[in-house]
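To fix ideas, we give here one paired sequence and structure record:
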Amino acid sequence: MRGIGGCIALIVVGAILTFASDWQMESVDLDLVGVIMMVAGAVGLGVYASVLKRRRALGVPVVEERRETL
């Protein structure tokens, strides 16, 4: 999963598993899996926003060419 969409998808699926499902499995706690997915999505959003902020700060270098004519 990539970018903001993947992070939001993790948060949404995690919230559905935690709050909207009543499934029971013997060896897996789906509430905990949902919380872990939501935390991973939130961390991913933070990292993605940080990287995006750095890319914007750097910007594209401006190169100015001057040609002298004789």
About this structure: The mean pLDDT is 85. The chain is about 65% helix and 0% strand.
